[in-house]
Write a structure and sequence with these properties.
The chain is mainly beta. The chain is built from two helices and 19 strands. Helix content is 7%, strand content 50%.
Length: 260
């Protein structure tokens, strides 16, 4: 049996990833099995001075027992905004291995050993299916779900500030950087670059797929503008927003910035 894991950053879109993976794997094998259909509620955990522990519900919607294992990792980011996970014993959690009966649920509890002081601490609990092979004597693939539950440990005093540090176009490529200058994570709701011609008519609008920016970190964004569209541009506008703020930067564009 070949085991293929799907890492889901958001349980709400897990089935979309599952279906895409099945279609791809179908090209490689004649036999594909899906692991159980399950959910995590809520999909984030917030700890802090007033809440040193918390819990989530693991719900098995499948018609067979669901076997899960859990591990804890620190969550940081590199200079390019890529997530880094490392083993940790900062988080106390139980159970570590469980079997959830069909149509039932299991509570997963977690707590922090050392609270945050000046800067938010970030972790993930990786909840991973332990699939069982249902076929023998033939090639088969089982697709399993692995979900990284974010855990945010709040500092004594929270500060939320973010700024656009770079926004430019060169050789037909737009680049930007957003820095989280606060002490808690920043999760944009949208990050969009829009190009307009000299009459103000929109030429294109590109979703740059925002993601978490942890405290003190930056995330770069880039977009290669199609040459035909670039030559028509007069301005670019970069906007990044969340529920409390909107950051934007307007960039004038000339033809020589489009040469690749």
């Amino acid at each position: 049996m070949l085991l293929a894991y799907i890492y889901c950053k958001n349980m709400e879109i897990s089935m979309r990833y599952r279906i895409l993976s099945v279609l791809l794997l179908f090209l490689l094998t004649a036999s594909i099995g899906l692991a159980g259909d399950w959910r995590v509620i809520p999909i984030k955990m917030f700890l802090g001075p007033k809440a040193k522990s918390g819990s989530v519900r693991l719900i098995n919607n499948y018609q067979a027992p669901l076997n899960l294992q859990v591990s804890a990792k620190t969550w940081s980011q590199d200079i390019n905004g890529q997530d880094i996970y490392e083993e940790t014993d900062d988080i106390i959690f139980f159970p570590r291995v469980m079997t959830v009966p069909p149509g039932k649920e299991q509570v997963l509890r977690a707590g922090i050993k050392i609270p945050a002081t000046t800067t938010e601490k970030t972790y993930r609990l990786f909840i991973e299916e332990i699939p069982e092979s249902t076929r023998t004597g033939s090639a088969s693939v089982t697709v399993a779900i692995r979900f990284g539950l974010p855990i945010f440990v709040a500092p004594l005093e929270e500060k939320s500030t973010t700024e656009v540090t770079i926004a430019e176009i060169s050789n037909g490529t737009f680049t930007a950087a957003v820095k989280n200058t606060g002490n808690v994570h920043f999760l944009p709701g949208s990050a969009v670059v829009t190009g307009k011609d000299k009459t103000g008519q929109e030429i294109f609008s590109k979703d740059l797929k925002p993601w978490y920016i942890l405290a003190g970190m930056s995330r770069p964004y880039s977009y290669s503008i199609p040459p035909g569209a670039c030559q028509k541009l007069a301005t670019l506008r970069f906007e990044i927003t969340d529920s409390t703020q909107q950051l934007s930067r307007d960039i004038p564009v000339s033809g020589d910035q489009c040469h690749q």
